Amino acid sequence: MIVSIDGRIVPPEQATISIFDRGFQHGDGLFETLRTWAGVAVTWPEHEARLRRSAATLRLPVAAAIEVHPAIEAAGGGDQRVKVIVTRGGRTIVIVEPLGPLPTEVSAAVVDLPLARRREGHKMLAYAENLIARDLAIAAGADEAIRLDADGFVAEGSSSNVFVVEGEDVLTPPAGNGLLPGITRGRVLGLGGRERRISVAELRAADEVFVTSAVRGVVAVTRLDGVARVPGPVTARIAGTYEGQIREQARSSVV
Ligand code: PLP
C-alpha cells in the first residue's frame, strides 16, 4: 500500500492527520474511489472534475494540484484501487492498494432508507448512511442496497448507480433526485443509456438490471429482493464495450 499526504509519500503507519481536522470530526470532506488499468488511472480526470465540482458547491477549498500519479507509480503499476480524500482541514490524501478480486455479479435488495430530498449527491466523507444501507441489504441476504429517492422512485445503490434494461432501452434514474452522478454511469449514458424515472415495480419487472461503479465497472444483478434473475445480453454488451473503451484508453494513454 502506498499513501501520500499533501503530495508526500509516507509509510502507512505514519500516515496520520489531526484529530481537529473537520474531515475527522464531522465527515466534512470529499473522496473519490477509482481504479487503475495496467497502471493507468484512465478515469482520474473525470473523478477530479466531479470532486472539484462538489467542492465548489460545498465551498470546500481544494489544492490546485492533486498528485495521484506519483503514488500510483510508487505502487508499481498493475491494477490498483485508488482513494483520494480531501478534508476541510486542508489535507489531501491518496491511498493506493492492490485491487483484489472483483465480483462478476451482484445480488441486490431494495432497502427502506430513502435519500434525503436534495438536488445532487456528493461523495462526502460522511458516508455512514451508505454503509447502513448496505448493512440493511446484507441483513436481507443481498450484497448491494438499492435506495429510493424522497418520492419513492429508484435512486441508486449504496455505492453504485442502478440501470434497468427494457427491450433495447437502457435506463437509469435522472440526476437531480439526490443521487450521486457516477463516473461509470456517465460513461454508460454515453454508450446509449438514458435517464428516466423508474418505479420499484418497473425495477422488478425489468428484463435486466445492472449496477455501475468505478471499481466494479458494470455488474449484472442476478438476484433482486430474493428473486433470481438471468444476467442478460444487453448488460454483457455494455460491460464489454465499457471495459474495451477503457482498456483502449489505457493502452493509448500518455499519463
Ligand atoms: N452512488 C454512490 C452513493 C456511490 O458511493 C458510488 C460510488 O462509490 C456510485 C454511485 C458510483 O459512482 P462511480 O461510478 O463514480 O464510482
Largest sheet, in brief, is: 9 strands, mixed
**Ions, cofactors and other bound molecules:** pyridoxal-5'-phosphate
Strand content: 25-35%
The helix-strand sequence is EEHEHHEEEHEEEEHEHEEEH
- Coarse morphology: globular
Low-confidence segments, given as residue ranges, are none
Alpha-carbon distance between the two ends: 21 Å
Cα-atom radius of gyration: 18 Å
Number of strands: 14
The percentage helix is 25-40%
Number of alpha- plus pi-helical segments: 7
Q: Give me the secondary-structure category.
A: alpha+beta
Question: Mean of residue pLDDT?
Answer: 96
Account of the 3D structure:
With 255 residues, the chain is an alpha+beta fold. Helices cover 28% and strands 28% of the residues. The protein contains 7 helices and 14 strands. Strands 6, 7, 8, 9, 10, 11, 12, 13 and 14 form a 9-stranded mixed beta sheet that branches. The chain has a 5-stranded antiparallel beta sheet with strand order 2-1-5-4-3. The longest helix has 19 residues, at 233-251. It is globular, with a radius of gyration of 18 Å. The two termini are 21 Å apart. The structure holds pyridoxal-5'-phosphate. Pyridoxal-5'-phosphate (PLP) binds next to helix 5 and strand 12.
Please describe the topology of this protein.
Layout: E1 2-5, E2 8-10, H1 22-26, E3 29-35, H2 44-58, H3 69-74, E4 80-87, E5 92-98, E6 105-110, H4 128-139, E7 144-148, E8 154-157, E9 161-166, E10 169-172, H5 183-190, E11 194-195, H6 200-205, E12 208-213, E13 217-224, E14 227-228, H7 233-251
Parallel strand pairs: 6-7, 6-13, 10-11
Antiparallel strand pairs: 1-2, 1-5, 3-4, 4-5, 7-8, 9-10, 9-12, 12-13, 13-14
The structure holds pyridoxal-5'-phosphate.
Pyridoxal-5'-phosphate (PLP) is lined by residues 33, 121, 130, 156, 159-161, 180, 182-185, 212-214.
